[in-house]
Amino acid sequence: AAGVIQSPRHLIKEKRETATLKCYPIPRHDTVYWYQQGPGQDPQFLISFYEKMQSDKGSIPDRFSAQQFSDYHSELNMSSLELGDSALYFCASSLRRGRDSGNTIYFGEGSWLTVV
Amino acid sequence: GENVEQHPSTLSVQEGDSAVIKCTYSDSASNYFPWYKQELGKRPQLIIDIRSNVGEKKDQRIAVTLNKTAKHFSLHITETQPEDSAVYFCAASTPLASGTYKYIFGTGTRLKVLA
To answer: What is the rounded CA–CA span in Å between residue B30 and residue B44?
Structure first.
């Protein structure tokens, strides 16, 4: 079965540079979530999109922005990179269901960002 | 704000013994509780989940229980095997006005199964 696809898998950037991560959700999934996971940390929610509109916002720095496109893929843009931005960035996708159904989110393999 | 507390942070058990990981959530509107297993450098993978209208769910060696009144839910792994060694995350999902869901993760439990 098709999974969430993230690219690139590994990225090395210098301080103050810009990076863009891409996420292609599972086919027919309409919701995308972005998480940041530092070493030994739990995944920290950054932002989510439903039907190309931002649906929720977490601890995303102002230096970061994201959007979801008409084909449901999403991009996370990170500018003025800092050493502390080095982390594993996960994208997850889900299919919106009724309020009482809950919905399962499925994670991509992640993109390793190293800022040097 | 909403949070999910998870205990213990580390857990070592002998192969064949049981392991129990506990989580507590704060938002009474949370209605879906998945558990994820994450191996080093890999993505979190769903292993079991439970919805708020169910008190217990079992899948082979893995079971999850939910106490809505106390806002507690727990993961039980029986007959542990070395390949169960990983970090386990609980999560609480809450419906949003937009129709989507907010997921809050616990801080993780590093399980080590000793052969």
So the answer is: 20
Distance CA A116, CA B93 (A): 35
Of the candidates B108, B47, B64, the one whose C-alpha atom is nearest the C-alpha of residue A43 is B108
* Cβ distance of A103 and B44 shorter than 8 Å: no
- Residue B100 or residue A13, greater confidence: A13
B99 dihedral zone (left: phi>0; alpha: psi -120 to 50; beta):
left
Considering only CB atoms, A102 lies closest to which of B93, B96, B108, namely B93
Which positions in chain B touch A45 (Cβ < 8 Å)?
102-105
- Tokens 């210098």 locate to A14
Q: Which residues of chain B have pLDDT under 50?
A: none
Chain A positions contacting chain B at CB under 8 Å are: 31, 33, 41-43, 45, 48, 50, 53, 55-56, 88, 90, 94, 96, 99-110
A28-54 pLDDT per residue, tens: 888 999 999 998 888 899 999 998 899
Query: Nearest CA to B58 among B83, B81, B35, B85?
Result: B35
Q: Which residue has the tokens 């720095």?
A: A61
Beta carbons of A46 and A63 less than 8 angstroms apart: no
- pLDDT tens per residue across span A61-113: 999 999 999 999 999 999 999 999 999 999 999 887 655 556 788 999 999 99
- Provide the shortest C-alpha distance from residue A63 to chain B (in Å): 22
State both tokens at A35: 């998480």
